[in-house]
């Protein structure tokens, strides 16, 4: 319901004035002119009509003042506050005029109330309204601009100050009329207008007409709720005209002037209510639009939040991948130096000292070269598998794999020297696991090659059923020094490896971590157990096949295939 404050006066941009407003103003004055020829026609005294006039006129002006002050509180336009104060003056001034009129009725037409108090207070009421409206057009624009930009609390304080000033003005005018009664000329003698009354009437016509012209010129710059004041001023002009045309009380013109004032006040009040309702509808539509925009903004915010979450997840995945790559590069850079150094040393020894070395020393150097090359090949194979399975997308192709076939395949792929150290027991006849043959071979081969590297004694592979008979346990046992107790918890972590005797390390810590991933992908599990009195046992648990399998003719074709 706010209006644009603009300047201190709150002058908005010019806008065309509604035709209906001018129609009401012209109709009021035209009606008065039509009544002029018969304005002096005598009518009976109608006290109830006069009381209704007092009450309704005061109520209409008071409600109009209230609507305008609400506009001021919402928009901060000082001109609206000034106009509200003018209507408040008209409503308050009705009280002393009503008191004087009632006293006139009781004391007679020749009393001071009839000749001075009532007519002078009525002229203060009828002339005061247009004069105050015209005056505020000159006063308000020179007020400081900061007054229109105050908050609602300050506006309430300003409205209270304005109401107090209006009350003081009404009291001052009443005291002035009552106190100066002996010096004021009587405007009525009995029920007839005096010469002073006629002069007062012509003055009222002139002042009201000038005020109407001044307000009409400024009307396009006023907001719609303020423009209807021209109708009220037109009613004041019509009242002044009828008072001149009907020099007696209780005539047609006398009653018509008051009825005209009342009807005009009602029209202005209804117009303000309509304008206020229109502003509320606009505000409601704006609020609905704002609510819709807020919903759109909320949906956009939720969508942005979802995208931000997805972006955060993607960033975390990229960061993990970057860390993963950095770990691989750093680990390989470190771990590859040791076998390359051995290869370089053996190569230089064979190249520069071939004639001075014995056959045994030559064979040892060549064997060392082969071991280190094998170590590098193992590291490369493990790295290739890890790069494929790390994202968590290990594709398995499970089949019913006979236990004996799985263990035999491992021993067949060992070197001749390693095969002499490995023994195997195949468990219950016909036992089979439901797993990917390539993955199973990779895990068991890793267990056995580790035992061959780190254990000087014999190595035993075995298979057995668990207590429920639903799973097969593959075990690879050796007679080495075992794993340090404080390292067991990290044995299957990525890039970890226990120190060997003398501080030596071989490999990059890929194998057991890869074995864990492959076992879990096949619904299995790997773990480590100590062997008493010394040694290690690595266990692979896989689900048992539900029915006896046929020999898998295709196993040889997948031997050595890369993990999918």
Automatic annotation (TrEMBL):
Its EC number is 2.7.13.3. This is histidine kinase. The keyword DNA-binding does not apply. GO terms for cellular component: plasma membrane. It is found in: Cell membrane. It catalyses: ATP + protein L-histidine = ADP + protein N-phospho-L-histidine. Keywords: Kinase, Membrane, Phosphoprotein, Transferase, Transmembrane, Transmembrane helix, Two-component regulatory system. It is an enzyme of class 2 (transferase). GO terms for molecular function: phosphorelay sensor kinase activity. Its main location: membrane. The chain crosses the membrane at residues 21-39, 45-69, 81-104, 157-179, 199-216, 228-246, 252-274. Residues 331-546 form the Histidine kinase domain. It holds the Pfam family HATPase_c.
């Amino acid at each position: 319901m706010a209006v644009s404050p603009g300047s201190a006066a709150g002058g908005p941009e010019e806008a065309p004035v509604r035709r209906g407003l001018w129609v009401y103003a012209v109709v009021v004055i035209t009606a008065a002119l039509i009544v002029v020829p018969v304005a002096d026609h005598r009518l009976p005294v109608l006290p109830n009509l006069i009381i209704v006039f007092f009450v309704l006129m005061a109520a209409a002006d008071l409600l109009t003042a209230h609507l305008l002050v609400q506009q001021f509180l919402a928009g901060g336009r000082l001109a609206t506050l000034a106009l509200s104060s003018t209507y408040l003056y008209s409503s308050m001034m009705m009280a002393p005029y009503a008191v004087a009129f009632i006293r006139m009725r009781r004391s007679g037409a020749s009393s001071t109330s009839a000749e001075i108090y009532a007519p002078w207070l009525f002229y203060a009421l009828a002339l005061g309204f247009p004069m105050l409206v015209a005056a505020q057009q000159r006063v308000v624009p020179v007020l400081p601009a900061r007054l229109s930009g105050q908050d609602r609390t300050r506006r309430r304080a300003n409205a209270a100050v304005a109401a107090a000033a209006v009350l003081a003005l009404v009291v001052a005018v009443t005291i002035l009329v009552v106190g100066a009664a002996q010096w004021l000329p009587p405007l009525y003698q009995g029920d007839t207008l005096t010469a002073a009354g006629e002069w007062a009437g012509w003055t009222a016509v002139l002042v009201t007409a000038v005020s109407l012209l001044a307000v009409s010129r400024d009307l396009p710059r006023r907001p719609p709720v303020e423009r209807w004041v021209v109708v009220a001023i037109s009613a004041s002009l019509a009242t002044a005209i009828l008072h001149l045309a009907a020099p007696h009380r209780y005539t047609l013109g006398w009653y018509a002037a008051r009825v005209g004032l009342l009807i005009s006040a009602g029209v202005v009040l209804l117009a303000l209510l309509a304008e206020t309702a229109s502003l509320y509808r606009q505000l409601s539509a704006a609020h609905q639009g704002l609510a819709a925009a807020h919903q759109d903004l909320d949906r956009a915010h939720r969508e942005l939040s979802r995208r931000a979450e997805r972006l955060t997840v993607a960033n975390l995945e990229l960061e993990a991948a970057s860390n993963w790559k950095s770990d691989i590069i750093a680990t390989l850079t470190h771990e590859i130096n040791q076998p390359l150094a051995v290869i370089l040393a053996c190569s230089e020894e064979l190249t520069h000292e071939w004639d001075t070395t014995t056959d045994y020393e030559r064979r040892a150097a060549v064997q060392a070269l082969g071991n280190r090359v094998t170590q590098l090949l193992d590291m490369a194979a493990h790295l290739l598998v890890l790069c494929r399975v790390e994202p968590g997308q290990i594709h398995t192709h499970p089949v019913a794999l006979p236990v004996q076939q799985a263990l035999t395949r491992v021993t067949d792929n060992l070197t001749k020297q390693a095969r002499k150290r490995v023994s195997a027991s195949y468990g219950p006849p016909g036992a089979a696991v439901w797993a990917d043959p390539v993955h199973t071979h990779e895990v068991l081969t890793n267990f056995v090659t580790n035992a061959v590297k780190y254990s000087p004694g014999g190595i035993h592979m075995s298979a057995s059923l668990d207590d429920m008979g639903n799973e097969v346990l593959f075990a690879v046992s050796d007679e080495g020094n075992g794993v340090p107790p404080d390292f067991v918890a990290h044995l299957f972590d990525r890039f970890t490896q226990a120190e060997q005797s003398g501080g030596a390390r071989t490999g990059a810590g890929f194998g057991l971590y890869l074995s864990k991933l492959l076992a879990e992908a096949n619904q299995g599990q790997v773990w480590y157990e100590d062997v008493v009195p010394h040694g290690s046992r690595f266990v692979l648990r896989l689900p048992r096949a539900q029915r006896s399998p046929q020999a898998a003719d295709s196993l040889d074709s997948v031997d050595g295939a890369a993990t999918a």
